Amino acid sequence: MTTERPGGLAGRYYTDSEIFAAEMDSVFARNWVMVGHASEVAEPGTVITARVGDESVLVANDAGQLRAMFNVCQHRGHELVTSTAARLDRITCPYHAWTYSLDGRLLHARGEDVGDVCVPRVRLETLAGFLFVNLSLEAAGLAATAPGVQDDLLVRVPDAPRRVLSARLTHEMRANWKVVVENYNECYHCPNVHKWF
Fold it and tell me: What gap in Å lies between CA 3 and CA 21, rounded to an integer?
């Protein structure tokens, strides 16, 4: 008797911690991941946060310049911005109050020399108004990675860059990330789960 699923991955690909760790590195840390829409950070001082694999990143509008960086204080590693969206003139760590500019430079560290400390940057590019980040500084650009995608999207939704995100819903899933992706890539479950479908 086999335990392999026909047409799918073996169960260990959903439960093995070593496979999961390898995926965090090879899939999420080295590829472009959509984290939001430009409309969310259209105004100076607006900041959004997102999870990219097991990392937290933030995108900030620094006087009209969009910047992305790891959402982690360089002092003790505390998450800098704990909400999904904020309006800030500077970023202050809630733990020891180290304060950073919106470009990631350390401005104030109580009792410490500021020096050249900066929050590490993350690559940021836009595609038809959508914000994508890549944790790898060596990765190919978004246009080279996804050639033609922006043109195809703009044919279907010409006003995509000008649209405004009206709401953001976040669902914490107690499942391997592949289960969620596979769920939206097939409809084998639809007749049983979505009776109206």
Answer: 23
Q: Which of 117, 90, 93 is nearest to 102 (CA)?
A: 90
Angle 146-20-187 from CA coordinates, rounded to 5°: 60
Nearest to 98 by CA among 121, 122, 70, 117: 117
For 47-86, the pLDDT digits (tens) are: 999 999 999 999 999 999 999 999 999 999 999 999 999 9
Let me know how long the chain is.
197
Could you give the strand order of the β-sheet that contains 85-87, starting from the edge strand earlier in sequence? Answer: 65-70, 55-62, 46-52, 85-87
Helix (H, G, I), strand (E, B) or coil at 182: helix
Measured distance CA(61)–CA(192) in Å, rounded: 45
**CATH architecture of the region 28-193:** 3-layer Sandwich (2.102)
Residues near 30 by Cβ (< 8 Å), separated by ≥ 6?
134, 135, 136, 139
pTM of the model: 0.88
Listed by start position, the domains of the chain span: 28-193
Distance CA 114, CA 179 (A): 44
Q: What is the DSSP letter of 98?
A: -
